[in-house]
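Notes from hallway chat w/ T.B., transcribed later so I don't forget. T.B. wanted the structure written out for a chain they're using in a teaching module, and asked if we could keep both sequence and structure tokens in one place. Agreed to drop them here.
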Amino acid sequence: MDLAQFHAYGYVAALLIGLGLGIEREHAARSAADGADSVTPELPGARTFPLITLAGAVAAHVGDVVVPAAFVAVAALIVCWYWVRAHAPDRPDVGTTTSFAALVAFLLGALALHYPSLAVALGVIVLVLLAVKSPIHEFAEHMIDERDIIDFCVLVAIAFLVLPVLPDRDVGPYGALNPATIGRLVLALSLIGWAGYVATRILGPRWGLLIVGIGGGFVSGAATTAVMARAARQTNTKDALPAALVVNVSTIVLVIGITWVVNSAVSAQLAMVFGGAAVMIAAETALLVLRRPREQSADTREGRSIGLLDRPISVPATLSLTGLLLVLLVLTKGAAGVFGSGGVIAASAVGGLADAHSSSLAAAAAAGGTISVDTATTAAAVAVGTNLVTKLVLAVVAGTWAFATRLAACLIGPVALSAITLWTVVH
């Protein structure tokens, strides 16, 4: 029996989506009824939602023209149910979330017949949105204001209005200035700043900035370091230091991962070179985070998390950091032109000032051909080292000498360990 012919996977996906949504809605209804000390509202639950998603799958199986008619019929039933429930004299108002969730469930069931993986992924997103009702309402009501909404609109405008129209070609000295690249850099800085702002409001500066440091390190380690340094200068907080430190773990993981794609031998050697350093940095980060006393302000005790950054998107700060990175990029391109194609390690050292990942990838791609695996490993390791210099420079410019000094002190041990391991591996 051909399961694909009968769309077995689609029906199973539709059933699972309906069960997940139905169980969540029924649990939410019972929790609300217990809190209100009243009778549980008769909401669509663990049985009704699977029927709705299966109805969508059956409609899609019968024919695409049936789906709109079935959707209208299901929507009419839901509207009638909602009207009756809302006008019942002794029943509480059940809200509109469950009604809209039922309509979405029907559409997900129809989608699951032909695209079960996509339907399940979207079903999980819907389930999460339904399950995190309290945090979402708390965030919308108490943790953002009109200024934050305006800043978010600026971020959306950069991403969807400005960036798509920027020309993607090299201009300027040494062809180092690409308008599209500059736009992506501004967007990356803005995204990291926004993520730090939101995370610190939700989780507090200690854990919020740490999470941003881990994730931002995969986007742009230098930019994330600059954002953390700026945060430390603005508020004199010590929570920015572990966040800037853990950025280097993300850089190491990403370098090992992308080099594995083109040359597994180079990636394996880089894992040996940087493995101990990554563990040491992670341990230092954990020590810095855990030994900090839990500090709560009056606003935090009242239930409002204070954002560490005054604003998620500061146009002057973002442009100044972008300008500094562009200067380093021009210097990198110029030095690479002087070195030429010879001196792979020297070229990687210069290239690493702007981006450790691309220089490491280029070195790994050349391994086994124009250069040996050991030479490629050395070049990639040097690129990571010089990129660390860029991060420290940004820590001074965007932050303070004290912040940069503490960051450098934490990195002395990992750098020394990596250097010794590199010498051992390549010799």
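Follow-up for T.B.: The radius of gyration is 27 Å. Might be a good example for the class.
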